[in-house]
Amino acid sequence: MKIRLQIGVTTAFTAIAVFMIGITVAILYQSNHRLALETARSEMTSARENTVENLINVIVPVGQVVETTVDFIKTFPEAITEPRSGAVMASQIKPYSYIYGLFFGLEDQGQFYQVVQVPVGVAEFGPNKSPLPANTKIVYRTIDGPINDMIETFLYQSSWGTVTGREKINVEYDPRTRPWYEGARKQDEIFVSSFYIFNSTGKPGVTFAKRVTDTDGKLLGVVGADLTMDKITNILNDIRIGNEGRVFLLDREDGVIAYSGTRDDATDLKFTEAGNRKIDDSIVETAITQWIKSRETFFNFTGTKDGRRYLASAAPIPELFGISPTLGFIVPEDEFVGAIKETTRNVLQIAAIIIVVTVILIVIISRMLSRQLNAVALEAEKVGHFDLEGDFQMSSHIYEVSALANAVSNMKVSLKNFGSYVPVDLVKSIVASGHPVEIGGTSRELSIMFTDIEGFTGKTESYAPTALMLELSNYFAAMKKKITANGNGTIDKYIGDAIMAFWNAPTTDPDHAVHACRAALACRHAGRQLNSISSQSELFPLRTRFGLHCDQVVVGNVGSKSRIQYTALGAAVNLASRIEGLNKIYGTRILASGTIARKAQENFLFRFVDRVSPVGTTLPVDIFELLGEKDEANSDLSATKEQYDEVSKWNTCMTLYRNRNWQESLEAFNALKTQASVDKLVSIYIKRCRQFIKSPPPSDWNGVSHIETK
After folding, report:
1. Cβ contacts of residue 61 below 8 Å, gap of 6+?
2. Helix count and strand count (H, E) for the chain
3. In this predicted model, what pLDDT tens digit does every residue of 243-276 receive, in sequence order?
4. Nearest to residue 130, comparing CAs of 169, 170, 173, 161?
5. What is the pTM (predicted TM-score) of this model?
6. How do the residues of the chain divide into helix, strand and coil, expressed in percent and rounded to 5?
7. What dihedral angle (degrees, nearest 10) is formed by the CA atoms of 93, 214, 319, 207?
8. What is the dihedral of CA 227, 231, 233, 239, to 10 degrees?
């Protein structure tokens, strides 16, 4: 292997210095990093233990209240319908502000007795959302009376026995139909409902319920207690680790029960619908997804949006009353290793400055010894990057240096000529690879464009070949400029007056569909400019049609050993050509497949044209007319207000058409025809509507139009 003197000396010294400094810094960093992560795990473990203890202290009393109330009813079954039972229930839940209400539903007639502790901040209550009387702290709600004439009563009190108001309504509530009642009816143990939003407060909670039976085992009813999430919210909010820590809670099916943001965001705990896994915090969502896959207690991941590293821990908490939610913690790795990284960066910056200064001195010395060789090497590097601008001339008294300079100069001229015949990016890749060109290709998704000049054959029948070649070359040059300027598109070939181009090869282009659409619009605009300045030409004005499609193809080198062409092959290429030809049928300028439209719809305005099965294809394809770019710059490529308005009216027509409202869609298309930009397209649908009015299509009609001509 041969290297330049300047690079060799500089690289050797730099490599040794970087290696020695890097080893030292890496050992220190890894040791401190490991210690920080162990600290993080210890904090997460401690936080989990404290949280479990606090949750148990909240949940266990709720179950005890339910059990005590069940025992009370079994002992004094006749007392449940009397006010003293309400007093007992009120005294049961008074020590626990997080118990929203305690209640009992009877099995025989659906009577219902409930004591509610009104939460702070609630100003309205009852089915009519009536304002609460002043100083109301307790609501005694009953549903009682004759079986066919039961009344629901709300007795508002500041304390038990001190009435502040009363409200009566017709019964609209049957406890026996509620999920908590039905769940408790089926088991002996306490039943715990899913998390849901309390209708009276609009806040999340959960219901603990247990059935009550008499001495003969007959079901008397169900006792229930509503647990608000305020206390649990405070517990989970307080245990977040660091300023940017997060916490989440999952049910047994890994659905999200609740999650919180960071302390800096001041985000309280958020509760979700049962079984939900889609939440608005990408960090928590990513952590949950990874834990579900691995089930590891401790793991780490990278944020999909911010790119930061996060530490996480998740594990089920001990089962209570049949529930065993999973508790998880998330904290950015920088909370623990941020200071270590900052110190390491400072050390590396100082070391880098020392290395840079030393390298500069070595470079100066080595350049004094190899100035001419360096000049030749720099020019060769420019050629390697396919930078062929300017001439290179260098004279030297050293034969080898002079010969090398002449070789570089000749190679530069040869590559300039070579680049006129094949795509520039392809030449760059060939030169950069340093390997012989071989036949073969790879499968890749490309955006493909075909263009064709309308009526070209008729215009050029009597045209002088020399003049035609000159003017057509000017046209091709204008088109090539726009194709290569937008996403570095590759022109595959010129076919008479047509152009085949594609994007995403040989250079990778993630936005190839967007660039293909923008190139088509730019080519259309360039054609208009040529028409305006070529008024004296027999060839101009020209009207170019475009077809766009995106799919997997095989792209690579095709041909023989003596003659190779870089091209794309596959059904997608043929379909793109067929789509271009459909412009003749519909009177459009730029048609794109549904694949292109889906990939580029955020950037461009499309109008659905038809679902077709072109000749030579087996599967139907949706085609769209590309009208303009969605931007606010009001450029030459931007869609106009008139186009937006027409697309809106067109979509209305198409909705009627797809819904088989033939008469209404006919009237809508007729109304649009007078102001349509593509009269031929509207006329096609008017004709179809008339045909379908006379002879409706079968019930399995899928809207596909079979095109039998190219």
Report:
1. 95, 96, 99
2. 18, 26
3. 778 888 887 778 887 787 776 665 566 766 655 6
4. 169
5. 0.46
6. 45, 25, 30
7. -50
8. -140
